[in-house]
Design a protein that fits this description.
- By secondary structure, this protein is α/β, with parallel strands linked by helices.
- The chain has four domains: 222 residues, Rossmann fold (3-Layer(aba) Sandwich); 89 residues, no CATH class; 108 residues, no CATH class; 206 residues, P-loop containing nucleotide triphosphate hydrolases (Rossmann fold), CATH 3.40.50.300.
- It is 47% helix and 11% strand.
- It is built from 26 helices and 18 strands.
- The chain starts with a helix and ends with a helix.
- The structure holds iron/sulfur cluster (SF4).
């Protein structure tokens, strides 16, 4: 029998859908019920809700009906904006209940009054050389500070240079906290945080939620539920937040900032010379570091000591500049110390080419998320695409959930631990795709899973074309044959094409080919801002956009401007990617298969995201063309194909051209 929360949530959903003149969708109702049950039972839920299914209303209705305090974390600004400006006010209006909400961003999105104040005094010397517009930007920001109630860069109507903004905001690792800051009482970021304390729905992004987890839960108010929307992208952001990064440039800036803040010159200079030595060493290393070379270990230890000494030598710690320098020193010290002796479950590597940095990350993000997240708070992980496997097992395992374990309410699990009840029996099995579901150090955390159907007629609206006749992508002949195929497809579509490449090399190559061999306007990632590119692609209906990874997800171009999505290769991660390499090794060490457990599910998720750019509304029709024949012939193809939207399929170019002729009119 449905619980009170389920009934109340469905009633709110119904009133909201009627209020906006929308359609009742059975999938949306099932999702609402499942989320309401998760709230009632305190269980984790993984829910796949395709584009157009109305997933945000489906989780807002149960949150409002149950009265819990929930954090909603999104990957993209677009979704954050949609929730804040449309969906939450809509549900509030039609629910008949009082809904309090807050939009909370990372600290560097707010103007820092201490920095602004510092422009009159000692902090006028910035880490970066101010740009030519700095004086004008400063006047704009001083006016903004007077009139704005938020201090949020998103509310700033005038355009200012990014470096001017960076000079006058305060990163999360620099702010000493309101009680140590002379501007703490008026601080915009602190005000936003206080408003969040009073709200029952708090909207944040994945980065802020991950930073909250990394600080042991100190950034956000206590909450009863977290909804992680666009959950397919969460593990990468959480991996960054729970890792660490040190760059020679960052250390150099810290040294000069410590000097300006009053540190003894000898100690501050030692930090700067440590950064120079680190730069030299990193220029000679590529990829993964294991074991740590003696010279690198010495530089890390020496620089740690220099940072600690320089920070301790600041006598007057109360100025904003000093307080921020001391806070930043603590953050850098923590990273330097972690890098000197990485845990067994961490991987250390050199990232970048010209500007190199040292990165540290947990091999298994799941092992970190279990104690920090899943043992603490019920979580709803929701996305249009949660990837392959029954119950989305690869992504679930990556995040620290166990597909073979029944969901135990979060509160009860903690209680069982406290009273010393035995843990659940460990299980080991394979799912239908042959993935080993349980690693030796298996998570005990179970979850519910739900996949709702697309509201679109995907088989009629979309066609998946695999260019099976092309040479293998690893053959030298592929590039020319793929270029011919692309031009032929673009001609059939009349432009209106989004080309998604797996590398910048592909972007350059296909963009050049289309420029030379077609008359369409060719937009290329990197030549304009993302916003400008998307605007031009949407408004010029015969243009083509050539882009790489950032455009594979979150891009929403409904209508005739995008009737063809071309994918150059299957999006496998690079074999020499240090983190993925370490993950593969861990899978093999646990008796599994690195390719099937790590590479294939990750590629399936990205491929499904890329394919999902095509059909955005009931009216859209079009083709996804994959120029990599492995999708038609490789023995692992079914894992990829079953994760993609259920379009009709073809390997016949003539059939595709006929379909495009009807789609692009
Ligand atoms: S507390 Fe002070 S230093 Fe921190 S962001 Fe606010 S104004 Fe800036």
């Amino acid at each position: 029998m449905a619980s009170e929360t389920v009934n109340a949530a469905l009633a709110i959903l119904d009133r909201t859908v009627m209020g906006i003149d929308g359609d009742n969708r059975s999938g949306q109702q099932r999702l609402t019920s499942a989320i309401a049950q998760s709230i009632d039972q305190g269980c984790h839920l993984m829910a796949q809700a395709p584009t157009g299914s109305g997933k945000s209303l489906a989780y807002l209705a149960p949150i409002v009906a149950s009265g819990v305090r929930a954090v909603v974390a999104t990957a993209t600004l677009a979704l954050q904006d949609q929730l804040w400006r449309n969906d939450i006010p809509m549900v509030a209006e039609f629910s008949g209940q009082t809904v309090t909400s807050a939009l909370l961003k990372g600290r560097s999105n707010y103007l820092c009054l201490a920095r602004l104040d510092g422009t009159n005094t000692e902090a006028a010397l910035f880490d970066e050389r101010p740009g030519p517009t700095f004086s004008d930007d400063l006047i704009t920001l001083k006016n903004f500070a007077e009139v704005s109630s938020t201090g949020d860069v998103g509310d700033l109507e005038e355009l200012i240079a990014p470096e001017s903004w960076r000079a006058l905001t305060c990163g999360p690792n620099e702010c000493p906290g309101a009680n140590k800051c002379a501007q703490g009482v008026d601080c915009f970021a602190e005000r936003a945080r206080s408003q969040a304390e009073l709200a029952n729905i708090i909207v944040v992004n994945h980065a802020l939620y991950s930073a909250h987890l990394a600080t042991g839960g100190r950034l956000l108010p206590p909450h009863d539920l977290v909804v992680i929307d666009e959950a397919h992208a969460f593990d990468a952001v959480a991996t960054n937040a729970l890792g660490a990064e040190i760059s020679p440039g960052g250390l150099r800036q810290l040294g000069s900032r410590l000097r300006r803040a009053g540190a003894t010159a000898r100690h501050a200079d030692a930090v700067i010379s440590g950064s120079g030595r680190l730069e030299d060493i990193l220029s000679q290393i590529t990829g993964r570091i294991n074991p740590i070379p003696v010279d690198l270990a010495e530089v890390l230890a020496g620089t740690s000591e220099a940072v600690a000494n320089a920070s301790a030598s600041i006598k007057a710690k109360e100025s904003a500049l000093a307080a921020q320098a001391v806070k930043l020193s603590l953050t850098r010290l923590d990273a330097l110390r972690r890098m000197q002796a990485p845990d067994q479950g961490e991987v250390l590597w050199v990232e970048g080419d010209k500007r190199r940095s040292l990165r540290l990350a947990p091999v298994s993000i799941g092992k970190r998320l279990v104690p920090l997240l899943f043992s603490q708070t019920p979580v709803v992980l929701i996305s249009a695409t949660l990837g392959s496997g029954e119950r989305f097992s690869p992504l679930a395992q990556r995040l620290g959930l166990n597909p073979n374990v029944e969901c135990v309410p979060v509160g009860e699990r903690s209680l069982a631990r406290k009273v010393g009840l035995p843990d659940e029996e460990e299980m080991s099995s394979e799912d239908e795709d042959g993935f080993t579901l349980v690693a030796p150090e298996v998570s005990e955390i179970g979850y519910e899973a739900l996949s709702i159907e697309s509201p679109f007629d995907l088989e009629k609206q979309g066609l998946l074309y695999v260019a099976r006749h092309l040479p293998d992508v690893r053959e030298p002949e592929w590039a020319e044959a793929a270029a011919d195929e692309l031009c032929s497809l673009v001609a059939a579509a009349g432009g209106r094409t989004l080309v998604l490449c797996t590398s910048w090399k592909g972007v350059g190559m296909f963009s050049e080919v289309l420029e030379k061999r077609t008359n369409h306007k060719i937009l290329t990632q990197g030549e304009e801002t993302t916003v400008r590119l998307v605007e031009q692609f949407s408004s010029d209906e015969t243009s083509c956009l050539v882009a790489t990874r950032a455009f594979w997800q979150g891009l929403d171009i409904p209508g005739p401007a995008c009737v063809l999505v071309v994918i150059d290769r299957l999006p496998f991660s690079r074999p020499d990617d240090p983190l993925e390499q370490a993950r593969r090794e861990a899978a093999v060490a646990a008796g599994g298969d690195g390719f099937r457990e790590i590479d294939l599910p990750a590629a399936a998720l990205v491929l499904a995201q890329g394919t999902g750019r095509l059909i955005r509304t009931h009216k859209d029709r079009g083709v996804v063309a994959v120029l990599d024949r492995r999708l038609a012939v490789a023995n692992y193809r079914s894992v990829l194909l079953t994760t993609m939207p259920a379009f009709a399929r073809s390997v016949d170019l003539l059939e595709v051209k006929a379909f495009l002729a009807t789609a692009s009119t």
